[in-house]
Design a protein that fits this description.
It is a single chain. By secondary structure, this protein is an alpha/beta fold. It has a single domain, classed as NAD(P)-binding Rossmann-like Domain (Rossmann fold, 3-Layer(aba) Sandwich). The chain contains six helices and seven strands; from the N terminus they run βαβαβαβαβαβαβ. Strand 6, helix 6 and strand 7 form a beta-alpha-beta unit. Helix 3 runs parallel beside helix 4 and helix 4 packs parallel to helix 5.
Length: 246
């Protein structure tokens, strides 16, 4: 009976993760805290049909006060228990079509994609320490891989690449600090998904991406602490389940 918290659950991958988790038996998933900055008809509908298992929590990852208030609300809903799994999914992708020297969105991207993850993780660590699974999945991308930078060079989103590389580094730092407590901190590349962020020409449906991501999250343990995981999707060579290079 594990509890989960997902940031950025108003749409896309976050919403689908919440939906798939809520479809599992209560014996496997007791409660899903689905956080969002604003309203989401899809998320509200999911919560209404969940018999109380999906709890919508207002949380803006760019606002520390909002994060701290959300942590208080989640703790009250856990009835003295800990939080088992945190999925840091919220993030943005902004473009600089004329090259890195014209990039004027790095601060905003860094706040959402790196600082927001740090602030959320820091706020929920006390609840995770009380949980039984102690897993933190930071949704990343191979676009942020320094080793693969040349292959992604033509993608005109340098701020996204830079901040996801920083997110990966942040993940490792948390993994090292909390490994003695039995935590599993890992970055996870869910694949190129047909969402508002990924676009309609992406490889995988959001349902495929969420299912493959959850399989990785379910299977992760302390041996995956500090690693950069990649989903496994049959029929796709690029989604072979082998760890991504940093």
């Amino acid at each position: 009976m594990a509890s989960y918290l997902i940031t950025g659950a108003s749409r896309g991958l976050g919403l689908e993760l919440a939906r798939q988790l809520a479809s599992l038996p209560v014996s496997e998933v007791s409660k899903v805290f689905a956080t969002a900055r604003g309203g989401s008809p899809g998320l509200e509908e999911l919560a209404e049909k969940s018999s109380g298992r999906v709890v919508v929590v207002k949380l803006d990852v760019t606002d520390e006060r909002s994060i701290k208030q959300a942590a208080v609300e989640v703790e009250a809903n856990l009835d003295g228990k800990g939080l088992d799994v945190l999925i840091n999914n919220a993030g943005i992708m902004q473009y600089s079509p004329n090259g890195v020297n014209t990039m004027d969105n790095l601060t905003e991207s860094f706040t959402s994609n790196v600082l927001g993850v740090h602030w959320v993780t820091r706020a929920f660590i006390p609840l995770l320490q009380k949980g039984t699974l102690k897993k933190v999945a930071n949704i990343s991308t191979t676009v942020g891989s320094i080793a693969l930078a040349r292959s992604w060079h033509l993608m005109p989103a340098p701020a996204y690449k830079i901040t996801k590389a920083a997110l990966n580094s942040l993940t490792v730092q948390y993994a090292l600090d909390y490994e003695k407590e039995g935590f599993a901190f890992f970055a996870l590349a869910p694949g190129w998904l047909r969402t508002d962020l990924g676009g309609e020409n992406a490889d995988l449906s959001v349902e495929q991406g969420a299912k493959a991501s959850l399989e990785k999250i379910f299977g992760a343990g302390t041996e995956q602490n500090g690693q950069f995981l990649k989903v496994l999707v049959k029929g796709w060579n690029q989604y072979d389940g082998i760890n991504s290079p940093w």
